[in-house]
Specification:
By secondary structure, the chain is of the alpha/beta class. The protein is built from 6 helices and 5 strands. Helix 1 runs parallel beside helix 6.
Length: about 180
């Protein structure tokens, strides 16, 4: 199973279409997809308890009880993960950031459950698209902190969407084939 974790305020925009294309590519190889839309979930921001290293470091869990735990488990149980976010101010959406900050804290502090796990990083920017590359750089650094393996970093912007959307299907297929080996 491959999990797609994504966030965008627009369920019908460029980010959503990117997710659909990746999902189609993965499923065309017979692989199961778990599509997790963060904007519909209740995920609080990190409380940075106990000077930033509370039970996330000592016990490998977060003290805040919300939908985070289910998404975290889905990622840990997945064969690979695709992270897709709309770009706000050269970074991920606030929803995505709230999730990812807690995820990264658990993984770097104690658990290391996703070390060596393959992932794709996708940033979808409207307007000029200037923030997509910087957003991907931020995601790449976070993946590096968790020792994940980003197989590709894909910026999707208004200018390149005519050729990037079909490329995302191919990226989904390539990821599915890679994990099947």
């Amino acid at each position: 199973m491959i999990s797609i974790i994504w966030s965008s305020a627009n369920k019908d925009g460029l980010t959503a279409e990117s997710v659909r294309r990746i999902e189609t590519g993965i499923q065309s190889c017979g692989e199961t997809v778990q599509n997790i839309y963060l904007n519909d979930l209740d995920i609080a921001h990190c409380l940075a308890c106990d000077r930033g290293w509370g039970v996330c470091k000592s016990e490998g869990r977060c003290i805040t009880e919300d939908d985070f735990q289910a998404v975290y488990k889905a990622i840990v149980d997945s064969d690979a993960v695709v992270f897709v976010t709309a770009v706000y101010w050269h970074d991920t959406t606030e929803c995505f950031k709230a999730f990812f900050d807690r995820f990264r804290r658990l993984e770097t502090a104690r658990n290391h459950s996703v070390a060596k796990k393959n992932c794709l990083l996708v940033a979808c920017a409207g307007g000029t698209g200037n923030g997509a590359v910087r957003c991907l750089e931020n995601l790449d650094h976070a993946a590096e902190h968790m020792d994940m393996v980003p197989l590709d970093r894909l910026p999707v912007i208004q200018f390149n969407k005519t050729y990037m959307l079909p490329a995302l299907e191919k990226a989904g297929r390539a990821l599915a084939r890679h994990i099947a080996q």
